[in-house]
Design a protein that fits this description.
Layout lengths: L6 E2 L2 E5 H16 L3 H9 L1 E3 L10 E4 L6 E2 L4 E5 L9 H11 L6 E5 H8 L3
The structure holds zinc ion (ZN).
Length: 120
Amino acid sequence: MGIKTPPFKEYEKWTTSRFFSFIRSSLRRSFTRWPPKYEAVERAKRLKPKGNVGRHRFEYQCSECKKYYARKEVEVDHIVPAGSLKSFEDLGGVAERLFVSADKLRLLCKSCHYKVTHHE
Ligand SMILES: [Zn+2]
């Protein structure tokens, strides 16, 4: 988990970093139900070409490599990263960058998502 941060003042059994990762994961969970996220997914979706149907009817295009994947192989990416959440001062900015319109979101396959995230 990295460097141990001081206890969180309102609940000293938790460190400050544990508290902020708790808040961050709550925001992330809310993001999964954010309507523009579904719009971004819909935009990248197409009906599978015939002869290649299998279990699922649709496939999704990665914005980077342009290849098509099953839904579980693509992830929604923020073009502008939400950034780190380490203090209450970060909270407004993180929420603002997280809950953005569909045009600021894109679908990436897992391998492109990994590359993009570890490049930042
Ligand atoms: Zn890709």
